[in-house]
């Protein structure tokens, strides 16, 4: 039987480049060729020897290549619509984090600097590049006995950017252990036992690495004070029915306080069962991209998409505060247009995102125009649970992201105050259980409207 990672974790097929992308690439090559020929010709006319001119042009080309190197600091990102934005909540800062990504230092296909630049473009506050410890398909091309290497590269790329880069790794085993991420590590090497006479073949290397007990890796991570969470527990390569459940080994580790969270959303998938056992076992709820290729390929932010993220409600914007919040379970997952979390955190985020900015009786009527502001990236689908009806809509309304929505309410007569209660379809506080939001409305009288 093949190791599970070979069944569904193969790279996604390359998407054909658009005509505009091909044209841009062609123009870049032509520009480089033109610059090279022009420089060579100019140097020849100036009297230089053919040999000298060749080396000068080669130096020019190498200098150009250096400017597009994968190393060095990441470029600062300009503010754009692709940036993920949610407001701070009462008493806490909302940090946008992706705690499960990969680079070429395991089975990803980009350098860590690219992960950092993507994170900056997406407006992330925190990023962890969590390489597989045991699965190393690029070993022949990128040998790296130090399992901290991708973190070091990412940290150097993020220097001065404000991005919080978190040290992490992925313990990569077959069931009953499965895959487990450990973040806020001090030394990833302690979670892996180097192989003597390591096989060159990636599959054989992976099989040999399984011999060291996985509990040793879990214990080593906990000794470093790391935060550990279960990855994609519904993954059909290890769970053919796609239903997430804790194995006996995982359950025992959870009860011992050695596993602290679970992914309820990973990549393109959401697991209702993981959400349920996460709540039942008092685990922190996590959402991640698990990105291996480019974010732009897999999530198409240029078309309004976004990677799944964990919204961490932290006391301040720092690595220490993010870690404290994760252990305290103050998280909300944003997956597609779905918010997932415990009632206290989801409600706090909804109250910060949706606010009534105005209410007034329309002239010579007993109907009230209520203005609802949405200060978040989510588009909220609200189902009316109050006793009032609306002028222009049924019981279901949609408040677009970063927009104001006008709702005309019919209270039946002029009243000084009333409340509107809604179920929020795309905010879940338990499987199949929407969050509820309540607005207290105090309409202005006609005299205030003039």
Structure, described:
With 450 residues, the protein is α+β, with helices and mostly antiparallel strands. It folds into 3 domains: 19-67; 93-336, Alpha-Beta Barrel (TIM Barrel); 353-449, Sandwich (Immunoglobulin-like). Helices cover 30% and strands 26% of the residues. It contains 13 helices and 19 strands. The protein has helices at residues 5-8, 19-45, 50-67, 112-121, 149-158, 202-209, 214-223, 248-255, 272-280, 295-299, 319-327, 343-353, 446-449; strands at 93-101, 126-132, 164-172, 179-183, 227-230, 261-266, 269-270, 284-288, 309-314, 331-335, 338-341, 354-361, 368-374, 380-384, 389-390, 396-399, 403-410, 418-430, 433-441. The protein has a 15-stranded mixed sheet that branches. A 4-stranded antiparallel sheet has the order 12-13-17-15. A hairpin with a 6-residue loop joins β3 and β4 (179-183). α2 packs antiparallel against α3 (50-67) and α4 (112-121) crosses α5. The longest helix has 27 residues, at 19-45. It is elongated, with a radius of gyration of 27 Å. Mean pLDDT is 88; it is low at 7-29, 35-40 and 54-68.
Provide the CATH topology of the largest domain: TIM Barrel
Indicate the mean pLDDT.
88
Radius of gyration, taken over Cα atoms and rounded to an integer in Å: 27 Å
Low-confidence stretches: 7-29, 35-40, 54-68
Largest sheet: 15 strands, mixed
The name of the CATH superfamily of the largest domain reads Metal-dependent hydrolases
């Amino acid at each position: 039987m093949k190791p599970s990672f070979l069944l569904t974790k193969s790279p996604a097929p390359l998407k054909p480049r658009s005509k505009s992308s091909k044209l841009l690439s062609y123009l870049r090559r032509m520009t480089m060729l033109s610059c090279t020929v022009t420089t060579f010709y100019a140097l020849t006319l100036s009297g230089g020897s053919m040999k000298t001119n060749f080396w000068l042009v080669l130096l020019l080309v190498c200098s150009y290549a250096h400017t597009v190197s994968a190393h060095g600091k990441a470029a600062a990102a300009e503010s754009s619509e692709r940036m993920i934005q949610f407001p701070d909540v009462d008493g806490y800062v909302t940090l946008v984090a992706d705690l499960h990504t990969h680079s070429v230092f395991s089975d990803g296909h980009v350098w860590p600097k690219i992960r950092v630049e993507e994170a900056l473009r997406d407006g992330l506050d925190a990023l962890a590049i969590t390489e597989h410890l045991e699965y190393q398909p690029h070993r022949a091309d990128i040998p790296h006995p130090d399992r901290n290497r991708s973190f070091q590269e990412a940290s150097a790329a993020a220097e001065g950017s404000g991005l919080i880069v978190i040290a992490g790794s992925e313990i990569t085993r077959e069931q009953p252990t499965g895959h487990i991420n450990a973040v806020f590590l001090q030394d990833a090497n302690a979670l892996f036992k180097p192989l003597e006479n390591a096989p060159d073949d990636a599959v054989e290397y992976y099989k040999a690495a399984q011999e060291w007990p996985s509990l040793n890796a879990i214990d080593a991570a906990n000794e470093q004070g790391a935060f550990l969470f279960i990855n994609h527990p519904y993954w059909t390569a290890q769970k053919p029915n796609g239903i997430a459940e804790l194995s006996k080994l995982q359950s025992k580790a959870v009860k011992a306080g050695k596993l602290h969270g679970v992914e309820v959303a990973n990549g393109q998938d959401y697991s209702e069962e993981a959400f349920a056992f996460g709540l039942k076992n008092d685990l922190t709820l996590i959402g991640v991209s698990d990105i291996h290729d480019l974010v732009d390929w897999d999530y198409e932010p240029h078309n309004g998409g976004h990677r799944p993220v964990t919204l961490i409600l932290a006391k301040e914007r720092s690595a220490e505060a993010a870690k404290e919040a994760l252990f305290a379970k103050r998280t909300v997952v944003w997956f597609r247009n779905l918010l997932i979390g415990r009632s206290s955190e989801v409600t706090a985020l909804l109250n910060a995102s949706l606010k009534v900015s105005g209410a007034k009786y329309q002239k010579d009527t007993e109907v009230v125009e209520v203005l609802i502001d949405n200060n978040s990236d989510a588009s909220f689908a609200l189902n009316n649970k109050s006793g009032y009806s609306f002028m222009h809509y049924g019981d279901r309304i949609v408040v677009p992201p970063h927009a104001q929505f006008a709702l005309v309410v019919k209270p039946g007569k002029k009243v000084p105050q009333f409340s509107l209660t809604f179920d929020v379809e795309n905010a879940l506080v338990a499987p199949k259980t929407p969050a509820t939001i309540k607005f207290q409305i105090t309409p202005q009288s006609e005299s205030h409207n003039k």
